[in-house]
Amino acid sequence: MPRVFRLYLVSAAIGFGVAAVFVGLVIAFNVANLRHLIFTSDIGFMATVAFWILNGIVFSGVQFGFSVMQMAGTSPQDDHRRGR
């Protein structure tokens, strides 16, 4: 498996994990009365899943961007070009 593909999959897994924690905390702390809306609606489960997926996409993108930016300057050739 190519390294960049593996990096993307790991970043996506981390992002969706963080999104699950985020959604759980939003529901636990009842932010903007979302817990009441989710528990009293007949499509509350679908709303929660959509909320998790959309936040997972955002957090995965942030995690992947952070990982790619951390890779800059890790090779010995980059250190030589910077004069270190």
SSE arrangement:
Blueprint: H1 3-28, H2 34-40, H3 44-71, H4 76-81
Helix pairs in contact: 1-3, 2-3
Structural class, by secondary structure, is mainly alpha
The total of helices stands at 4
Please tally the β strands and state the result. Answer: 0
Rg over C-alpha atoms, rounded to the nearest angstrom: 19 Å
Order of helices and strands: HHHH
Distance between the termini: 33 Å
In terms of DSSP E residues, the strand content is: under 5%
The low-pLDDT segments are none
**What profile does the largest beta sheet have?**
none
Roughly how much helix do the residues carry, as a percent range?
over 70%
Mean pLDDT: 90
Q: What's the overall geometry?
A: elongated
Describe this structure in words.
- The protein is mainly α.
- It has helices spanning 3-28, 34-40, 44-71, 76-81.
- Helix 1 (3-28) crosses helix 3 (44-71) and helix 2 packs across helix 3.
- It is elongated, with a radius of gyration of 19 Å.
- The mean pLDDT is 90.
How would you summarize what this structure contains?
The protein is mostly helical and 84 residues long.
